[in-house]
């Protein structure tokens, strides 16, 4: 995965990376999780940090906890292993914000190939796509053309495509393309709502009327306080409020299907409690979690009879995804640092 020739001794390459990560640890100690998250999300978009991390082989060793591998074959193998544990899967080909139409079409072709491979292999998996990977920032019509090709192939194969949500400047365009697909007759697609955005309740209410398939998550991008809740407690409260809307009688009467995407025990327990209090059976919704994070919790939910779907990414463009995973939970950063020092 994106390894460069090791012409520089590892101990020399490791020093600036280790200093950068230790600095983020100091931020956590001095200022708390908010500042740590801000630092890591900054590093996710910093070219110099990307070069340092991806040129240091032990970084991939740790990143592979969260990424299934380089190739679609790696992803299919991971999906099959999760299926054997009673879990469903959504595969994701890593990459975002392409710079040319050719790159967007290449991403489209890879995803079409993966949909074929899913069908041929017999694994139980749908697919998630990022619209900036399909050319959203270059040309919305190019993106829509690529997206239609993917959703049409999925429909032919009896599969489903989840449209991922990215940072706040892309939300309106993402939802517009989702509704455009629905108007074109494609009902084998769903969308993602992020609880940290102020606008999300209004978006959820419209999606309920649409009877859509919705994945609810907290959100993993750096957002300004005029568009997103800055405090974790407020994000959590909004997550619970949106979860309850997505599982409400009204939502179910419109046949909305909800994926509750969280690793937070408080959010998981709030969902279970709400479902029990309202006699919502486990097949009416699912929990969604990320590959490599809280595996014991994933398996425990399956044992309790809940549907669980695991988001399984693959590909060489793993760095931004990896850094956002570090930003989400301090435990992920400590795992990274501990393995980095040992190697």
Word description of this protein:
- The chain is an alpha/beta fold.
- It is 55% helix and 13% strand.
- The chain has 15 helices and eight strands.
- It has helices spanning 10-31, 33-44, 47-54, 57-63, 72-84, 101-121, 140-156, 171-183, 200-210, 232-246, 249-253, 265-277, 295-303, 319-328, 330-342; strands at 88-93, 125-129, 161-163, 189-194, 213-217, 257-261, 285-290, 308-314.
- Strands 1-2-3-4-5-6-7-8 form an eight-stranded parallel β-barrel, surrounded by seven helices.
- Helix 9 (200-210) links the parallel strand 4 and strand 5 (213-217).
- Residues 1-13 have low confidence and may be disordered.
CATH arch. level architecture of the largest domain:
Alpha-Beta Barrel
Distance between the termini: 18 Å
SS class: alpha/beta
CATH class bucket of the largest domain:
Alpha Beta
Query: Total strand count, please?
Result: 8
Major sheet details: 8 strands, parallel, barrel
Q: What does the overall shape look like?
A: globular
Number of helices: 15
The total tally of domains equals 2
Q: Enumerate the spans where pLDDT stays under 50 for 5 or more consecutive residues.
A: 1-13
Rg, nearest Å:
20 Å
Summarize the structure.
By secondary structure, the protein is an alpha/beta fold.
